[in-house]
Amino acid sequence: SISMEATMVVMVHTLAAILTLWLISRSLWHLVWRSYAVAGWFERQGIRGPPYRFVLGSLWEMKQMLVVERGKTPLDIGSHDYTSRINPFFHKWAADYGKTFLYWLGPTPTIYSTDLELVKQVLENRTELFQNDYLNPILERIFGKGLVTTNGDDWKRHRRVVHPIFNHENLKSVSAMTRESTQKMIAQWCNLIEKGDGHQAEIDMGCYAEELTLGVIERVIFGAHYKEAREGFAEGKEIQKLAVRAFADPQIPGLRSITSKTTRLIKERLASGVDGDDLIGLMLRASKSEEVESLSSDEMISECKTIFAAGQDTGATLLTWGMFLLTIYPEWQERLREEVLRECRDDDGDAPYINSIQALGKLKLLNMFLLETLRLYSPLPFLLRKTASDTTLANIKFRKGTMITIPVMMLHRSKEIWGLDADEFNPMRFEKGVLGAANNTYAMLAFSCGPRGCPGRNYTMIEVQTVMTMILRRFSFSLSSQYVHMPRNFISLAPRYGLPLIVRNLLDGEKSDI
Ligand code: HEM
């Protein structure tokens, strides 16, 4: 029996050794040989790129380049030339390897392309061939399994339940809630001015923009219960920051499961079953209806996180950069103010402000101005997709699992697409719409397009237009000497040290009429 035992031990050891060898060779195949095979496969199709490095792929090189850029002095205030600071690697590799090249997000092969035919085929595809995947488990934890991160049938189900939140009636209440929040902000500014020298005050527009969009989105999601949700959201923002740090630095180990107050609050509300016109109410009603396939309560929680994460920061960013551009182009501040005062009137000309979405539709210059803001300061600098099976795209053969980077920021600056003044601020380029400004509709991708384009586009435009019209009527504003022009990509593209502005009250003494 001793020899039996010895045989068993030998067998177990042999099996363990075989298993270990198998695991090692599989990892080596994945991390080394496969990478060379994939690089060779693309090279034979004329696509080259930076060399693959063990496990880290191109991430190490990307990080090194970012460190160099971060050490540089701030940009001139009037310069929009920040893209090479945020994406130095894309600039370098596009110069070295052309419009389409291969780089590595860790061991994952990734094709970068500014070929608009390829962009169109990826974004317009309706067969689930190109899936949303940001290769970041932590981002998935922030968004949960909601509209942004799901694919296929799950995504369709989420979409059917959630999309009514963007219908016309709800947009009207977004507009009303934005007006209310903006009135509060204006009252705070008036107070600050009064407490100061009576004429002007310095404020951080970045903070106010965040506060404002937060105030709206929490009411869109939680309705009457928004106050209780506040604390949870504050925590949500901290989690977002951690996640972005982890994404920027792949060495940081994964964060453990995050249970936030928000989740608890959502659970309580779901358990109480109280409806309402907010997102939770909408999802609860869908779960009672027999026509719509409903979401589980975990999926509902995910969807709240998604709408919060997708809709808050982006809107604040657009508002912040819009205000920034109006300070460095004061002639545009004047033009827009003039347009607001002219168009936003009642029929009898008395009441100076019409509270309707239709009134916003008349603000042509403001709309062109915001398109130009989105082009130069797109809140999201790139899109990522993953191929779900082998495919051919714009004459390039892709293997399943290849990532595709659509560099929105680079496309928005392409001289080939927008003309020689692509780097300059010129809202008039949009006088005849996007097609009049660029030679291709797929050139403007701030909200992406196709089936997975941003459903919050009108929501955001209404929100930002409302705030800006109200500010323009009431205040003139200029840049504080404290401002440092260093855009950074953190969650979305934001000024690194906020946006300090000097605001002056144009309607001295008229407190009530906002
Ligand atoms: C300036 C503001 C905004 C910008 C620039 C923006 C941009 C984008 C972009 C580029 C995408 C596509 C992402 C991808 O394909 O990977 C997207 C998707 C999405 N956005 Fe927005 N967004 C903004 C505001 C909002 C708001 C206010 C909401 C909600 C209240 C929202 C909700 C969503 C959702 C749910 C998706 C996922 C859609 C899907 O995959 O079906 N966004 N957004």
TrEMBL record:
Signal peptide: none annotated. Keywords: Heme, Iron, Membrane, Metal-binding, Monooxygenase, Oxidoreductase, Transmembrane, Transmembrane helix. Its cofactor is heme. One of its GO terms (molecular function) is heme binding. The chain crosses the membrane at residues 6-24. The keyword Transmembrane helix applies. The keyword Transmembrane applies. GO terms for biological process: lipid metabolic process. Belongs to the cytochrome P450 family. This is Cytochrome P450. It comes from Aegilops tauschii subsp. strangulata. The lineage of its organism: Eukaryota, Viridiplantae, Streptophyta, Embryophyta, Tracheophyta.
